[in-house]
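1st attempt posting a full record on here, be nice pls
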Amino acid sequence: MSAESGISTFRDSDGLWENYDVMQVASIEGWYENPDLMLQFYNDRRKQLKDVEPNEGHKIIAGLEQYFHVTVVTQNVDNLHERAGSSSVIHLHGELTKACNENKTIVSDIEYEDINKGDKAVDGTRLRPFIVWFGEAVPLIEEAARIVSSADILVIVGTSLQVYPAAGLVNYVRPGVPVYLIDPNEVNTARNVKIIKEKASVGMKLLEKELINSIKN
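the predicted structure (as tokens):
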């Protein structure tokens, strides 16, 4: 979803994220093994986020709130949906602009500031990025499943459907509910979906017309 804004995808086919092995920078084991690397990695991602803007795809999704009740369920940790104007966003994998204590019970907004070695949360534990890493529970997955199970339309944008448990949310769609999948790459899915093989902004522009026409006709 955010690739067109200049943010690299979480995991390319080579298993790297910004030239780092994903498990080095996106797992709880990586945090225990090399917290300094993890802090620097997410500090860099935060600096990058500050300098990019929501793309047309983000803006179209936000604009659909004029016609529909829209809830965005995202695996992305950036704030581009919010900056584009979306009012209801569930971040399954955490938020880059927040920090937390070790067990993620105390969360604070840091916007684009660094988290430095030795920084402490108010409970005295080590301050860390508010990110859900591999090896950790996904606290909002049940809320996301509830929303998907009540949806009248499901739109999936820019995902390989390979990262679980998020990839399993499509299985909560009620029978007969239309499902659209927008991605320029081949995506394997056993479900009956309408595939729009385009990047996010182009695919959302095409789908926007179809969805708006469906409620006008």
